[in-house]
UniProtKB/TrEMBL annotation:
GO terms for cellular component: chloroplast. The lineage of its organism: Eukaryota, Viridiplantae, Streptophyta, Embryophyta, Tracheophyta. This is Prolyl endopeptidase. Its EC number is 3.4.21.-. Belongs to the peptidase S9A family. Residues 148-361 form the Peptidase S9 prolyl oligopeptidase catalytic domain. Keywords: Hydrolase, Protease, Serine protease. It is an enzyme of class 3 (hydrolase). One of its GO terms (biological process) is proteolysis. GO terms for molecular function: serine-type endopeptidase activity. It comes from Gossypium tomentosum. SUPFAM superfamilies: alpha/beta-Hydrolases. Serine peptidase whose precise substrate specificity remains unclear. Does not cleave peptides after a arginine or lysine residue. Regulates trans-Golgi network morphology and sorting by regulating the membrane binding of the AP-1 complex. May play a role in the regulation of synaptic vesicle exocytosis.
Length: 365
């Protein structure tokens, strides 16, 4: 099943009959499309070029793929012309993109998007990465990224768990995963991880997790609850000490986060936050997965100290062999959203991949 998103593009002329959108999916490089609402035809403005991409990428016809033209009474010659001229490339013949519904702890079905290469993937023998966020009603980004191809071509599985607390079909998906119901999002994420292993997508001891900002709250809590489920994790600008941060109203986002996570000044909400807070619930004298924590010194949204104190406590609490596998990398110049520039982003991504390869013990040859 092909999972795709259609987002509004740059539409500066309100009087124009042409509406611009950006089509993207894990297997479709971003395509900018103009839709003429008067003629009901599509035209492709640009598609991202992918260097070193598989040679068997399919050319898709926009008139065929977005097959609404015939039902809207388009004249046959206009439709045929649109089909003939407007084509995009996708890689669905090279990489599988599947959407599954995973049953969570309370019977709710959680969307899970799974991306892999049928040629390189081996059932129950492949390493995997599970992405999660689950906060502020934000939909997890599953758009095209060319850097994933190097992992996919080596048999890795990349999955995206759209847990409660993030964006869904309606507002209730967010509301049933925040505040007093935050643990639902954590259980959703764990259920998706178990599904990948139980269904043979990922080898049992080869699952990793990646979270960013508030998504690290999700990952950190899951690591505490089910440390044996994950082999490694990457936490970027992580929100890990939620209890102490929300008790400090002088921090810039504390008051806004009361609506999302709860107010610890209220006893019931304090107890709820305390039950899953990643920093507070680190297990003493237990084994811990390998973790790469990246923080930014000038981060005004999540204090750099949250990453530093979490790493220090894990190193102090975990067994001696595990404590050496928890790494803190702090950028002394950037903020919450990182630095721009293609080469800086490539360097950061290469570091992340190198960590995962080493932590998972995977042979990349």
């Amino acid at each position: 099943m092909l999972s795709a998103s259609v987002e509004p593009g740059s539409n500066l002329d309100f009087m124009s009959s042409v509406y611009r959108v950006v089509l993207s999916s894990p297997v479709i490089p971003d395509v900018i499309i103009d839709y003429d609402m008067a003629r009901r035809t599509f035209s492709i403005v640009q598609q991202e070029e992918v260097l070193g991409a598989p040679s068997n990428a399919r050319s898709r016809s926009s008139g065929y793929e977005l097959d609404t033209l015939q039902h809207r009474g388009i004249e046959k010659d206009a439709k045929d012309k649109n089909v003939e001229l407007e084509r995009w490339k996708d890689f669905s013949s090279t990489y599988c993109c599947e959407r599954k519904e995973v049953i969570s702890h309370d019977g709710i079905q959680v969307p899970l998007t799974i991306l892999y290469s049928p040629k390189a993937w081996k059932s129950s023998q492949s390493p995997g990465i599970l992405h999660g966020y689950g906060a502020y009603g934000e939909v997890l980004d599953k758009s095209w990224r060319a850097d994933r191809l190097s992992l996919l071509d080596r048999g890795w599985v990349i999955a995206f768990a759209d847990v409660r607390g993030g964006g869904g079909d309606d507002h209730s998906w967010h509301k049933t995963g925040n505040g007093l119901f935050k643990q639902n999002s954590i259980h959703d994420f764990v259920s998706c991880g178990k599904y990948l292993i139980d269904e043979g997508y990922v080898q049992r001891d080869q699952l990793s997790a990646i979270g960013v900002s508030a998504g690290c709250l999700l990952i950190g809590a899951a690591l505490n609850m089910y440390p044996n489920l994950f082999r490694a994790a990457i936490l970027k600008v992580p929100f890990l000490d939620i209890l102490n941060s929300l008790l400090d109203p002088s921090l810039p986002l504390t008051m806004l986060d009361y609506e999302e996570f709860g107010n610890p000044g209220i006893k019931s909400e304090f107890e709820c936050i305390s039950s899953y807070c990643p920093y507070k619930n680190i297990r003493p004298r237990g084994c811990h997965p390998s973790v790469l924590v990246t923080a930014s010194f000038n981060d005004s949204r999540v204090g750099v100290w949250e990453a530093a104190k979490w790493v220090a406590k894990v190193r102090d609490s975990a067994c001696s062999s595990c404590s050496r596998s928890v790494i803190l990398k702090t950028n002394m110049s950037r903020g919450h959203f990182g630095e721009g520039g293609r080469y800086i982003q490539c360097e950061e991504l290469a570091y992340d991949y190198a960590f995962l390869v080493k932590a998972m013990g995977v042979d990349m040859n």
